[in-house]
Amino acid sequence: MCGKNFSFLIECYSENYERKIMQIILNFLYIYVAIYTAYLFTLAVRNLFDRQYTIEKRISTGIEEENLAVVVYSHNNKLTLEKLINQLKLQSYPIERFKMHVILDNCIDGSEELFENERYINVINIKEIGTIGKDEAISQFVKRYSINHEIDAYVFIDGDRIIPQDFLASINAALKSSSVLCGETILLFENLSFREKIKSAFQKYSMNFIQKSRSLLGLSAFADSGVFVIRKPILDQIKEIDFKNIDEELKYGLLLSKVGVPCMYNPNIQSCVETYEYQFRRPKLLTRLKLFGKCSTQLFTRNWKFIEHVFSLLQPNICLTALIYITLLCFASKYYFFVGFKGIILTLMMFIVGFLLSLLNARLNFKESVCLALYPFYMVGHVVKHFPPVEYLTKLAYDKFHGIVDIEKFAIDVMVQVGQSQIPCKLEFISENDFARIKFIYKRKSYITDKHIRMIDALQELRIKLNEYGYILKICGACEYFQSKNDGSKNMLKGCCNCTKPSITIQAVKETLVWNACNEFKPAENVNVYGGSQL
Predict the structure, then answer these.
(1) What pLDDT is attached to residue 527?
(2) pTM of the complete model
(3) How many CA atoms lie within 13 A of 205 on its CB side?
(4) Residue 532, Cβ neighbours under 10 Å: how many?
(5) How far apart are CA 264 and CA 55, in angstroms?
(6) 246 contacts 282 by C-beta, under 8 angstroms
(7) Three-class DSSP category at 96
(8) Average pLDDT over residues 266-287
(9) What mean pLDDT do residues 320-339 have?
């Protein structure tokens, strides 16, 4: 009898323990989504009243002008760079109030030719040391011009952007209320692939609703290096700029909030991007969680904007919120927690109204709305695909099916001449089980060669294929002056240049590699495996 009572007590204790654990979990989930629902509803209502940006746009040409340093960063963006420079010259902003600086980061597409007769534009042409990247290039520029006290603010912009005539005037107007700014990126929706249309629709929704609403409430935005504006005294105080990648830009935005000068989103600052050049970027969830953990020890402050900015790292997406609500409704009848079933329904209705208002605020057309509706399915597929075990098993199965044991890749930027035009492309040198292949990438299209014993032979196949379409690959390995050198390696990637003229990138002993390039390029009749043109 005692044994039965003891078993009964153990069973009751286990049930009570399970019930308490579930109540704690459900309480936590409800508080989490309730706070987010209130946040979403507040954003949705605030975005309905955005007259301040309309007024700011209207008066942007009638206020005192700042002295702006417009810094354009370009890496093989000759076609779009030329458009951008012409658009800057035609700005409605007084030309004496801004100075153009162009950073050419190891450009091999002839970008420097655009500025041969330009006196007004300061050109910083980075050569001989390879591509140093946007972060390092801009950091060096800032150090060099930190002693220039005539600059009021820096305007950093990528060379692949297209801007309206009032771009600088809009920035000048926005600087009256904020010291650090970022703007809206517009994509040409019709030129995107189906998957990119889904991502583009979500990005438009995020900018037109979340970013804009946060700005209307005076809340911080994350820094965007594509178009970034900062007053010079602020940058002199921080003494650094961090544009390495999207994760570093996320940290940089938090740093600005911490020092009391948060980056503010302004929808009047608009730029358009040629869609094939644009890279969709979004910080990973794991990165945001790690960053929140690091910043959690710094939340004991009266800087409420910084505190809110840190907690915004935990912001769930619509799909996760809906899933939590479904979970709460399913367990509400079995586990009683501090809010009842009616309370959950009331909060859920508030969430639905806020979400519907957010769709109205986003100003999406029918096609974009359909693509936005497909975004949850895309996200589920993306998460499953990149889940570490799945990613590992997929790679393992692919390698086994293709017989790949060892694979190495090396990617470089190259130029291809088509008629009188030069277009930027990429080459990917691939080594698979001691066989060599080369992948040619242009926009969203690619071509990969067959397997060869030597990389130089794969290059010959690629060059012949490109010639059939009227393309000329402008690298040393396809140049008449190139002579391959037998250095003991199988791939024979090293060589020397027989050009007698001085070259920008090839000097002194004139040793080079097959993927290098210079201004003295002359197409060979065939790939020079042993030197000299081959028929």
Answers:
(1) 45
(2) 0.77
(3) 24
(4) 13
(5) 17
(6) yes
(7) helix
(8) 79
(9) 80
